[in-house]
Design brief:
Chain A: This is Succinate dehydrogenase/fumarate reductase iron-sulfur subunit. The structure holds 2 protein chains of 2 kinds. Chain A is α+β, with helices and mostly antiparallel strands. Helix content of chain A is about 40%, strand content about 15%. In chain A, a hairpin with a 2-residue loop joins strand 6 and strand 7. Chain B is mainly α. In chain B, strands 1-2 form a two-stranded antiparallel sheet. Chain B has a two-stranded antiparallel ribbon with strand order 3-4. The N and C termini of chain B lie far apart (about 55 Å). Classes of the chains: A alpha+beta, B mainly alpha.
Chain lengths: ~260, ~270
């Protein structure tokens, strides 16, 4: 057990500042334990959002020493005993109070996303898919919606005006999940991603991947494959020519989707 | 480069946190190393490309990758496996038909984009460190929308890797006929590493099978995609290793061609 110093940002949308706390830390504890001890012993009005304390609910997202992290998954042995640890709310979203932010931006963007649409002639209970066809999408289902990726993405973190045209990495993996889904019947996922979600804003600097607590390869497995698919649709003259000659205007995947419906 | 302190990370209704970033780790190390590494390589490569000498070892048929394919009228005839049709000028590299495509392939590579956007353009320099620019439109407009042409440069790089492989095979030569020396190992290692980089390219991964919706209908392409994906997992590593291997291979061939060292021969 040792006593460590923490600087916790306290305040709301009207302003705030760092408060300093000296807290006893035990072996094996995480940042969220420390925040709870501060609440219990020194600042009962400290606002913090948390739930599972197991890295699965995505509630306790914050920034620890400037890095977006889940507080419940950030072990204290990451830090030197003499080090002052700063804890701040997510900096991309409006602050509610102390460590709690309003993450409704992400839900608004999610509502704009067209839902999964199965083929019209396939009823629930009749979905049949090969494991090999769905495993790419399954990686993206690990997302716990902690929104650390959304928070760290510089496109909106540093440029508030981009929040309107840009949905962010969390929604890009949703777009990729559906575009790669063997039974999704929509053929406008890529257009949606490029035109409505602002995929072109992403300059693939991979911070979303770096901070993902579920270690989803957001950039390599979702964003870049979507960029490549869009490049094929829009910027590849050979693909365009081949489609004109052999497919009569249809994308190859449209043809495949049509075949699936008839199977 | 224009940089700014005026980014959106702190104003209300966001938390009014005065320091623009609170990271305490050495986040500057990555960008600095990237700038140093890429700058050194570009200076060396530029010097070698325009040097127009010591690129061919006649006894052992070693040709440096910086001069492959050698297609200038100034090329030594034996080194020009594909003819000599470009004018001999100090401003035109001997391998001017391949170098622009290789440069564009690396410039538009998804790994290098991350590297130079972070280190040279500071957009952003590191995660949760403010962007160096007040305005940001990403790759939505000219010229950066051109990054979408990466696939074409991949096709070109693929062909050039085939040519490099051909050069490495032709280099099993000595004045007595077949021969094998340390230079062959260097050329072969470079070619293998180039294939690891090229085959692990994100565009290659897409072309091999990433574009498909139903892997189960295309087992061979699925297999190719899995191999490409395995290499793609280490794309950054291959990117740096191949920069080093290209420069070291070139330097070795230059050293032997200039007579600074003798090639260690195993056979003939």
């Amino acid at each position: 057990m040792s006593t460590r110093t923490f600087q916790v940002w306290r305040g709301d949308a009207d302003g705030g500042d760092f408060d300093e706390y000296d807290v006893e830390v035990n072996e094996g504890e995480v940042i969220l334990d420390v925040v709870h001890r501060i609440q219990a012993e020194q600042a009962p009005d400290l606002a913090v959002r948390w739930n599972c304390k197991a890295g699965k609910c995505g509630s306790c997202s914050a920034e620890v020493n400037g890095m977006p992290r889940l507080m419940c998954m950030t072990r204290m042995n990451l830090f030197e005993e003499s080090e002052t640890v700063t804890i701040t709310p997510l900096r991309t979203f409006p602050v509610v109070r102390d460590l709690v932010t309003d993450v409704s931006f992400n839900y608004e963007k999610a509502r704009e996303m067209p839902a999964f649409r199965p083929p019209a002639d396939v009823k629930p209970g009749e979905y049949r898919m090969s494991q090999v066809d769905v495993e790419r999408s399954q990686e993206f289902r690990k997302c716990i919606e902690c929104f650390l990726c959304q928070n760290t993405c510089h496109v909106v973190r540093d440029h508030e005006d981009n929040k309107e045209p840009f949905s962010g990495p969390r929604l890009f993996i949703r777009a990729a999940e559906l575009d790669m889904h063997p039974l999704d019947d929509r053929d406008d996922r890529r257009d949606q991603a490029q035109d409505e979600q602002g995929l072109g804003y992403c300059n693939i600097t991979k911070c979303c991947t770096e901070v993902c607590p579920e270690h989803i390869h957001i950039t390599d497995n979702a964003i870049i494959p979507m960029k490549e698919r869009i490049a094929g649709d829009r910027y590849d003259p050979l693909v365009w020519l081949g489609r004109k000659i052999f497919r009569k205007g249809k994308r190859p995947e449209d043809t495949t989707a049509a075949q699936t419906k008839t199977e | 480069m224009t940089t700014t302190e005026d980014t959106a990370v702190s104003p209300p209704p966001r938390a009014a946190i005065t320091p623009r970033n609170l990271r305490t780790d050495s986040w500057m190390r990555g960008p600095i190393l990237t700038v140093v590494g890429i700058t050194i390589w570009v200076v060396y490569a530029t010097f070698r490309v325009f040097y127009q000498g010591d690129y061919w070892v006649p006894d052992y048929h070693y040709l440096t990758p910086f001069y492959s394919p050698c297609v200038s009228e100034g090329c030594i005839p034996d080194s020009a496996h594909f003819g000599r049709f470009l004018p001999d000028s100090p401003l035109i590299p001997y391998a001017a038909v391949s170098l622009p495509f290789l440069l564009a392939f690396r410039l538009t590579c998804y790994y290098y984009r991350k590297a130079y956007y972070r280190s040279f353009w500071l957009s952003p320099p590191a995660c949760a460190v403010p962007d160096g620019h007040a305005k940001y439109t990403g790759e939505t407009r000219f010229p950066l929308v051109g990054q979408n042409l990466h696939r074409y440069f991949f096709y070109a790089a693929f062909l050039i890797s085939v040519i490099n492989t051909y050069d490495a095979i032709l280099a099993f030569h000595s004045p007595e006929g077949f021969g094998f020396g340390l230079g062959n190992l260097v050329l072969l290692a470079n070619v293998v590493l180039l294939w690891c980089y090229t085959f692990g390219c994100h565009s290659c991964r897409h072309v091999m099978g990433g574009r498909l919706k139903h892997f189960s209908k295309h087992p061979i392409r699925y297999r190719l995609w899995t191999i490409s994906s395995a290499l793609n997992n280490r794309h950054m590593m291959w990117a740096w290793i191949t920069l080093a291997s290209l420069a070291l291979t070139d330097f070795y061939v230059m050293s032997v061609a200039a007579g600074w060292i003798d090639d260690l021969r195993f056979v003939n």
